[in-house]
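Researcher: Structure for this, please.
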Amino acid sequence: MLTTIPYYYTVVGVNAGGAGDDSEQVATEAITTLERQTEYLDRAPVAVHADNGVLVSWRMLGSDPDDIAFHVYRDGEKITDEPVTGSTNLLDEAGSDGSVYTVTQVLDGSEYTATGDFGVQAGDYLSVPLDKPADGYTKDGQPFTYSANDTSVGDIDGDGTYELFVKWDPSNAKDNSQAGYTGNVLLDAYRLDGTRLWRIDLGRNIRAGAHYTQFQVFDYDGNGKAEVIMKTADGTIDGAGTPIGNASADHRNSSGYVLQGPEFLTVFDGATGAAIDTIDYNPPRGDVGAWGDGYGNRVDRFLAGTAYLDGEHPSAIFSRGYYTRAVVAAYDFDGEKLIERWVTDSNDEANEALFGQGNHNLSIADVDGDGKDEIIYGSATLDDDGGLLYSTGLGHGDAIHVSDLIPSRPGLEVFAAQEHVSAEGGMGATMRDAATGEILWSIPAVRDTGRAAAGDVDPRYEGAEGWAIGGDSAWNSEVGQLVSADGEVISEAIPPANFLAWFDGDPLREIVDHTFDQEGYWGYPTISKWNWETGTTDVILADEGARSNNGTKGTPNLQADLFGDWREEIAWRSADSSELRIYSTTDETELRLRTLMHDPVYRLGVAWQNTGYNQPPHTSYFLGEGMEMPAAPSIRYTVDAPEPELIEGSTHSVSAEITHRAIGNGLVLTVTVTNTSDDFVTAQVVTPYGEKKIQRLKAGASRSIAFQTRSDSFDAGSVEITYVGDDGSEGTLVVDYEGVTG
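Model: Predicted structure, token format:
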């Protein structure tokens, strides 16, 4: 039997006299390791102006060996004396506007290509030009304009570089509670240079608003190229100009709602925008009033995500409803057809506890440790097979955060805002065990808590802090409770609770927010550092020429680890939506982590980030002060990564093997040097226990030399071999060895 978790067995003997005593419990080993189908990524190097030079950074990939190292070249000259091993960034104090950089990788003492040439970014951000749609008029003659809204990423051609997928919202987009016609919702695909690849027009029968269109961008069929999946209707025009359904149909009523007509789910080719397959959306709206009201509010609350339900292949998750009835469906895509995997309906007796538990968002993570993802659907969680794992019964909320927030506990935790405070025992926000739903601690409230966030912002306390607005519960309330991972109230002064990012050089999270003009109902974006000593925020970046999204929510168009090392990029639209402005950090870091996009929880968080009330992505491990280094992810690429080219002259003329054995009064360290060149070499071997010289070792020959440690144990260390060849080659080879305990 394949198993990804241990099973526990107890044997009880039974005969005519009854049952005997229980045997000692025996556990099986979790012998199956699942590998997630994952997009290949390149190093995505970036060079940006910093205070004291040029900051160069690049990706460490999920597939990289732990001992990989890097060199950096400027204008063809190596500027690193030793390979970079402690981070994947370098501050070049001599760098300038015209500098051109290259990064190489060092493996087993040899140097290989890692990136092509790249220059220094012009300006404070990467500008991606956008093709803004023309203004329009609604059915009743009201004018509207467009602005760039939620954005996602995917690789459409398997080259390891992301493309951008930008949703355009009309200025008359509506909340479901608001009547009125809206302009059409559009989705564009762009390369990073601003080349528009295609545009999908969702048509008049898809209403514009935060709760209507949730789009998923992911490589579902494993061909190395991303697809797009989203809800469509009669009159949707795909990226190739082909209509879906009845192009002339208009199902809008006099209030602007779409409460009749067919509803579809369509998968589009990421490269062309052409529709590949269209099926009926499940569940259909049916009786509108059965969802909680008769005018079209609760029936059209949609969520979407992507999950590895089998632990190896991604499935698309689409749902309907969360205030009352909730239905969640999972789909696989085989390259030609969407295939329904399962449907979970709160109207079914086994799933009644799902009723009314959904949020304005969801999260995806393997919460039970079996390698397969669960869907955290607000106050309830669905198992990988669609069964209800648990329901807390706490009901609907506006915000949710899932990660290893309390590293002293096993597994993951969920921090969530709660809306129905009076019905939930006065709990405005809760920290719970992600696997069981057990409430670990809570923040009290007397009214709907519309904002809550969790991340490590205070290095004095272990783990992540959680906070929620209090006082008058205004979205920008500066009072509430900031609580440590173990439930201790730190202060009643709180950071803003809209969004979080890893942006500067330390592992703490920064506060992503905006300065908001209530009268004009717009904001310009800010990034701030929480000052735990003063209980205030210190702004480290602001862009008055850019705009935040989604009203008071103040969210970016996109936040993800797009370029360079593990720190996140943040994209906002310009005030006129003529460009996306993608900001990268200008701070050095001493922390080396693999790209967050190869972390399973984080990558899926980027995929569902555009859903409902956008939430920041989190990692599967605790990323904060005092963190432990995470293990490499268990992944396999959908396309073969390009083979790095050996850099001529970077190989050593010798190799070495280090062994040890016990002789007499201690251990002997033996270094065996092999001449891998075509000529004689002379080598000097230096160890912590002395140094010796090897004279004129002929090509292909090996020689072993011994060093007496005079101990029955020794610490890990390294051997340095400096060599000179008769052919003029020279170099130094450093070989590490493990320690031995007595």
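Researcher: Any notable elements?
Model: Helices lie at 600-608. DSSP finds one helix and 58 strands in the chain.
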